[in-house]
Specification:
By secondary structure, this protein is of the alpha/beta class. It has one domain: Aldolase class I (TIM Barrel, Alpha-Beta Barrel), CATH 3.20.20. The chain is 34% helix and 19% strand. It has 8 helices and 8 strands; from the N terminus they run βαβαβαβαββαβαβαα. Strands 1-8-7-6-5-4-3-2 form an 8-stranded parallel beta sheet. Strand 7, helix 6 and strand 8 form a beta-alpha-beta unit. Helix 1 packs parallel to helix 8 and helix 2 runs parallel beside helix 3. The chain is globular, with a radius of gyration of 16 Å. 42% of the residues are buried.
Length: 224
């Protein structure tokens, strides 16, 4: 099933519980939490205490995206804070297999993230130990960026590898997805679609979430 995953980076943190409740009323069952350390990317956002606080106000799946250096040092803390899935960047994890194992040991789904310019081919040997792959469709670090079109070709390549190897990992995409390009993203092969500004900066996040779920439901997840 296709999931629309609102990114709280674009939400109003002064009323975060209310913002989360709005998108959940619109049908969202997953929330995307961007963790940035000011080193791997320039921006600085949240840590385990904020994840733990969010966990107390929602039963939704918390999808934590670590844009940090040395992620293996911290994945256990985020798992304990209540993350259901944790993804780390291929570009930041020196011992990727080991880090994915630590995430699973903590009880969370383990994901790998690729920056836009990193080819899908680098993951071919690790796909069997990943629960999902997140493809960045903007350069990581800040919300509100425009979608990079060539990332759809990466989605198609990854979906082809998934079929070829008969694997069941999820394909996630993050950055610049909105109502106008959502159907194309789904048809390329994405399962989890992260979207922040398109939802939380809209006049009615609840209605926008519901509309995006409907668009995704009517799109056919086949290669184009």
């Amino acid at each position: 099933m296709i999931e629309i995953v609102p990114s709280i980076l674009s939400a109003d943190f002064a009323r975060l519980a209310d913002e989360i409740a709005r998108v959940e009323r619109g049908g969202a069952r997953m929330l995307h939490l961007d963790v940035m350390d000011g080193h791997f990317v320039d921006n600085l956002t949240i840590g385990p205490p904020v994840v733990e606080s969010i966990r107390k106000c929602t039963k939704s799946h918390l999808d934590v995206h670590l844009m940090i250096e040395n992620p293996g040092k911290y994945v256990g803390d985020f798992a304990k804070a209540g993350a259901n899935s944790i993804s780390v960047h291929y570009e930041a994890a020196r011992h990727l297999d080991g880090v994915l194992g630590l995430i699973r040991k903590g009880g969370a789904m383990a994901g790998v993230v690729l920056n836009p310019a990193t080819p899908v081919a680098v993951l071919e040997d690790v796909l069997e130990v990943a629960d999902y792959v997140l493809l960045m469709s903007v350069n990581p670090g800040f919300g509100g960026q425009k979608f990079i079109p060539y990332v759809l070709d990466k989605v198609r390549k990854l979906e082809s590898l998934r079929r070829e190897k008969k694997l069941a990992f999820q394909i996630e995409i993050d950055g610049g997805v909105h109502k106008e390009n959502l159907a194309e993203v789904v048809r390329a092969g994405c399962d989890w679609i992260v979207t922040g500004s398109a939802i939380f900066h809209s006049p009615d996040p609840e209605a926008t979430t519901r509309e995006m779920r409907e668009i995704a439901a009517h799109a056919t997840a086949v290669q184009i």
